[in-house]
Amino acid sequence: MLVVDTSVWVDYFNGVENPQTNFLHNVLDATPILIGDLILTEILQGFRHDPDFETVRRTLGRFTQANMVDTALAVQSARNYRFLRQKGITVRKTIDSLIATFCIENEHELLHNDNDFDGYEKHLGLRVIHP
Prior knowledge:
Number of domains: 1
Number of strands: 5
CATH topology: Rossmann fold
Helix content: 40-55%
Distance between the termini: 16 Å
Radius of gyration: 15 Å
Strand content: 5-15%
Strand order of the largest sheet: 3-2-1-4-5
């Protein structure tokens, strides 16, 4: 299943064209997409106006929804973060560590536009779509 990170959704909803948003546009109706609760929160909290919030909430509701974090995943995410830090890679956002670990543990592919995920791909086997 494909997990699309907030970094891509924000660009997509703002009409930004880049390889990731173009890829997303081309696969929206043909590829199973998973919307994790963490990503949903990040996307929706960025909308200033209620009608935009509701439109996007309904739009994203058509995709598979999942809770991304439980205690085991939180612990594994901390392990992964520490492993990367020992390699000299500092992930700036905890939520990115949780998303990356969720994808690794569940063998999901990730479409992103955020270099916080690069270490997870290089050292921990995160499967990333490179359009």
